[in-house]
Description:
Elements (H helix, E strand, L loop, with lengths): L22 E2 L2 E5 L6 H9 L3 H5 L4 H19 L2 E3 L11 H20 L2 H28 L1
Antiparallel strand pairs: 1-2, 2-3
Amino acid sequence: MFHLAEHAVHCQVRAEQLKIRTQDDGATFKLNFHKTDITKLKIILEHTDWDNLVYNLPIAEAWEVFYGILHRAVTQTIPFRNDKHIGKRIFLTKHIRKLIRDRKKSYMDYIASGSISRLAKLQKLRSKLSETTTKIANEKNSRK
């Protein structure tokens, strides 16, 4: 008889193994694990008769059965998120990336030293970055 606990090494389930994606008009969808319905997922997995499903099956086939049930349970309990716009920074030109890098370095310098001059430099970089991104955003909106 196949016991999942005995074959945990063979059946490690990681988030990257649950690559459930669909293509719809160029958008890529991934699972939004933060909004998982854990209670429903637990109920589905607890009420699955694992012994009858994987009885006398070789490890590879038992794994496929397990993965198929887990895949269905995941798609029923974990919503998709649209990654088309998540985390993308629209205005990341070389100039802005350099400003961000300089701002981070300036912040770390200020934290390490606590110097007023470092704080002034940090504030100057923050305002310059804000002005630059606002300017680019306004230019982009005026083109529409």
